[in-house]
Amino acid sequence: MSDSVHKALWERLELDVEAHEALLAVLGKFYGDIYLSQEGRLQGAEYLDFVLSEVHGLRIQEIQDAKATGKKVVGTFCVFVPEELTLAAGAIHVGLCAGAKAGSEKAETILPRSTCDLIKSFVGFKLARLCPYIESCDLIVGETTCDGKKKAYEAFGASVDAMHVLEVPHCKMPSDRALFRSEVVRYKEALEKLTGNTITAAALHEATITVNAKRRALQRLARLRAADPAPISGRDALLVNQISFYDDPTRFTDKINVLCDEIETRIAKGEGVAKAGTPRLLLAGCPMAVPNWKLPYIVESSGAVIVGEESCIGERNTRDLVDVTKTDLDGLLDALTDRYMKIDCACFTPNTERLEHIAALARELKADGVIHYGLLFCQPYAHEAFKVGKAMTEAGVPYLSIETDYGMEDMGQLKTRVEAFVETLS
Ligand code: BJ8
């Protein structure tokens, strides 16, 4: 799309066009430095570059075209919101989490300063009119996971037309499962009201197969990363997971399966993005939304390669599929509930399965160490960082815990810590 077409599109969405263009200019430079400078990238990475270059252009146009035919757009901030239901209602499902500081000052006019940057970022993007996805949404769905998000939706909700907050329980007892099952039904009803479409068993079954296929492609990619030399950089694999929240699910699945075919060929030839024996690290913790690439860049420019992401923009969102053997509506809603209640978010107590998952993932991916990534002011993951450290010590896996935000001020300090950690693994 040409610059003038882009601009007209953003004007129609009532973005702050000047501030938005300044943001895209910074992002373009950032992307060039962090992504395009990599050596030995896969040919399939062209898809990633293209989607990223048009993430506020062609994809938004596509969404607007769909809206013109009557489709509705639903925006979410958490992997607890079942995409299967959104698709079954004939709507488009997009992730709205943001990974940049832009807009944070505005966010701090309605949120406490001691709020994590993930929350400040999406609130700031709305208040500063920087996100074409938020402005395209007909319904925004929040959820009661951490206290920061739960309370932020009250303030955020005042600036959007329609908001639905899904109650996510914090324990996994039978009564919690029953509560979440009723919330799945309440979300289904909200979608039916929004779209005017009834969610039938057949539509939900088909949508579930679509989302399972997307998760299966991401699982395939994750398992291929066990190869040494690492066939794909952590940065590119993270980008694949980030794009899974924006692109059309069927197109995305096809592209990622083609990328995996190429990776298999690369593995068969013994080729990779780093030499065999390069220290391999698993990142665990808070999700990294676009364009939060700071830590992956630091790690991969410090002599290590990232082989997995234990986060919601990674393994936590792709590990489990929905059972599609039941084809009646109640059976499918049960299967959805069961799948989503397996998510091991740090907002749950107890959450011991997360520790087991991290240890198993580190083993499967032959990781030499684990870096826990927590966003400053994120209580749930800060608490679990201690437990993960203990579990890794018991499993004999070297461990480093990092707490940071979206700012660049601590780049030098983080690099020193990561380099020292990598040094101990070599
Ligand atoms: S299921 S991880 S996407 S809630 S970083 S906002 S936890 S204070 S993002 Fe998450 Fe859903 Fe859980 Fe996943 Fe709060 Fe922490 Fe901020 Fe966080």
How would you describe this structure to a colleague?
The chain contains 19 helices and eight strands. It has a domain at 4-205: Rossmann fold, CATH 3.40.50. The chain starts with a helix and ends with a helix. 49% of the residues are buried. With 426 residues, it is α/β, with parallel strands linked by helices. The chain has helices at residues 3-12, 17-36, 45-53, 58-68, 83-88, 104-107, 117-127, 132-136, 147-157, 174-195, 201-224, 234-243, 249-268, 294-300, 315-318, 329-340, 352-364, 379-395, 411-425, and strands at residues 73-76, 92-95, 139-143, 163-166, 280-285, 305-310, 369-375, 399-404. It has a four-stranded parallel beta sheet with strand order 2-1-3-4, sandwiched between helices. A four-stranded parallel beta sheet has the order 6-5-7-8, sandwiched between helices. 54% of the residues lie in helices and 10% in strands. Residues 78-80, 116, 118-119, 145-146, 148-149, 286-287, 312, 343, 345, 347, 375, 378, 380-381 line the site of Double cubane cluster. The site of Double cubane cluster has 20 residues, from helix 7, helix 9 and helix 18.
